[in-house]
Amino acid sequence: MFVLGLMSGTSADGVEAVLAKFQGNPYQPRWSLLNSVSVPYPSALRQGVIDAGQGKQLSSKEWLELTEAITEVHSQAVFDCDPKGLAEMVGCHGQTVWHRPPQLKRLGASMQLLQAPLLAQLVNKAVVHDFRSADLALGGQGAPLVPIVDAAIFGKTHGWRAVLNLGGIANITLIPPFSGPDCCASVFGWDCGPANTLIDFAVQKMTNGELAFDRDGLIASNGSPNEEIIARWLKEPFFQKSPPKSTGREKFGLVDMQKRFRAAKNLSEEDFVATLTAFSAAVVAQDLDNLTSNNLVRPIELFVSGGGCRNQVMFDELVKRCRGVRVLTIEQTGIPIEAREALAFAVLAWWHSHQIQGNSPAITGAKRAVVLGSRVNPV
Fold first, then answer.
1. DSSP summary character for residue 214
2. Distance in angstroms (rounded) separating the CA atoms of residues 206 and 50
3. DSSP string of 32-85?
């Protein structure tokens, strides 16, 4: 089956689209990636998405028009990625603007903006969307959903394999080996913390909005990280919490960046960006170290995806801090670095069509596994 996957993550820089073909066993599919494209949001739309996620009050009219504009960019991504119309369906995550993990006796909730019936009509294809709601209704975090897809796509090797996404937020997957005492272990996965989101806000503040992010890590490369500050940040409650856990810009957003900026007021701007960049890598390294210290697992290799791969300073910090782990980009598996999550939602749509359960209680904390997503057909 040909399926098109769409993803716009917490960085809110645009829509990633992939066209893939799946065959065989859903949990060990034969798959091929036929095309991938990136369609950027216009600058005003990107700012609108970020503002909505940072608490700006919008009128009903503004919410409606924001959702329409997001949907229209998603439809453009479909046509750009699949000009011949090969896809039989579209798996679309939508644009997250707010995510609330479960709290005490309160269920979690997550808001993804998308007008799925409009998208189905624009592209004249079935659209599977709203992937998080069922897991949240069953007490889960609703995120991350990609880890068991990673296990299906990447498969196992002779040791534990990790897959890390460096988008706005860093999330990680741990896949057990194909042999040995851990071969029947569950796939692990959780949100580690901020990847690019705090850095992006810092760069926007420093440049009065002229730059949206630290391209190639050039600003960070002109500074030096403050290890004392990083060590203090790593002691915060979220980073001490054991999985399942999920997060987003709601926690690691503009207000959080400003708080850290005030606490690091003696640093130069370049040192502050370097510190945030090293902090993102240190969060991941600490999570891996905690697994090892608790006699759980230690991956032998770490495949890295997402826009953070293009930040050479962040990548080098990962290599330095994740001791004993071979760190590679996901491109070495044949998947473009920004296509992994779009490919994952293509898989989840394919699973939905076969009524295959798409979440993992071991990862999200949901009461049980369930088929994810809702299908909308063009009329």
1. -
2. 17
3. EEEEEEEEEPPHHHHHHHHHHHTT----HHHHHHHHHHHHHHHHHHHHHH-TT-
**Long-range contacts of 152-159, Cβ-Cβ distance < 8 Å, separation of 24 or more:** 152/26, 152/27, 152/28, 152/29, 152/347, 153/29, 153/31, 153/335, 153/343, 153/344, 153/347, 154/303, 154/333, 155/28, 156/183, 157/300, 157/301, 158/300, 159/299, 159/300, 159/301
- Domains, the chain, ordered by start: 2-142+339-376 (3.30.420.40), 147-333 (3.30.420.40)
For residue 105, what pLDDT is reported?
Answer: 87
Contact 40, 14 (CB under 8 A): yes
Extract the runs of DSSP E, i.e. beta strands, from the chain.
2-8, 14-23, 30-40, 89-100, 109-113, 126-129, 161-166, 169-175, 188-194, 301-305, 326-329, 374-376
CA distance 189 to 365: 11
Q: How far apart are CA 109 and CA 130, in angstroms?
A: 12
**Which position has the token pair 């009329």?**
379
Rounded Cα distance between 363 and 375, Å, is: 24
Q: How far is CA 288 from CA 48, 173, 242, 308, 379, in A?
A: 35, 11, 12, 18, 48
- Give the pTM: 0.94
Q: How many Cα neighbours within 13 Å face the side chain of 199?
A: 36
Q: What is the pLDDT of residue 295?
A: 67
Structure confidence at residue 293 (pLDDT) = 78
pLDDT along the chain (379 residues), means of 10: 95 94 93 96 95 93 98 98 98 96 93 98 98 97 95 94 96 95 92 97 94 95 98 97 93 96 94 98 96 82 94 97 95 92 97 96 96 97
- Would you state the structure tokens that stand for residue 40, as one six-digit string? 């950027």
205-226: buried (b, 16+ CB within 10 Å) or exposed (e) per residue? ebeeeeebbbeebebbbebebb
The full DSSP string for 91-139 is EEEEEEEEEE--BTTBPPEEEEE--HHHHHHHHTSEEEE--SHHHHHTT
Longest dimension (CA), the chain: 60
